[in-house]
Amino acid sequence: MAVYLSTYVNKVDKKGRVSVPAEFRKVLSGQSYQGVVVFKSLQYPALEACSAEHMEQLSDSLEALDLSNEDYELYETTIFGGSVQVPFDGEGRIVLPEHLARFANIAEEAAFVGRRKTFQIWEPQALAAHEDAMRDKARSRDVSLSKIIAKASQLRGGQS
Fold first, then answer.
1. How far apart are CA 29 and CA 20, in angstroms?
2. What does each of the 160 residues of the chain score in pLDDT, given as a tens digit?
């Protein structure tokens, strides 16, 4: 499966339409549903987005876990119950539902942020503040790509 990479900032037009980055649409192109699933982030003032197939995978993963009824209620209400399937128009744009755009304070521009198997949609200034905080945290934890690769290699028994 391809992954979502990079950050793109696109204008939101007067009708509330915003173009999903072409690179993100390429990742979604092999999916059965021609659009995205969008829901409120549980952690940030942003929106989470993914393919319908990814949501099915999440559902299957939840079924495989031995969760309490309370945990199922938590996931089903906040993620599945709050999700909206948003179709692409002929130009690769979506219309963010008003309640979701309002949650993320998205009005004139939307920042699309790749997160491997999913992507987020942010108000650009809020994203900039979040990125600064994450970079500070990464520096304080001495995070580096070479350390991630080395640790993963160790976990796989030295295979790279």
1. 12
2. 589 999 999 999 999 999 999 999 999 988 888 999 999 999 999 999 999 999 999 999 988 888 899 998 998 999 999 999 999 999 999 999 999 999 999 999 999 999 999 999 999 999 999 999 999 999 998 988 788 888 888 888 865 5
Facing residues of 8 across strands? 112
Q: CB of 34 within 8 A of CB of 87?
A: yes
Nearest-CA neighbor of 124 among 103, 108, 137? 108
Amino acid 103 reads: F
Q: How many CB atoms lie within 10 A of CB 28?
A: 23
Q: Which residues pair with 93 in a beta bridge?
A: 19
Whether the CB-CB separation of 112 and 7 falls below 8 Å is answered with yes
Phi, psi of 7 (to 5 degrees): -130, 135
**Residue in 12, 13, 46, 8 with CA at minimum distance from that of residue 27:** 8
Q: What angle do CA 139, 143, 146 make, to 5 degrees?
A: 140
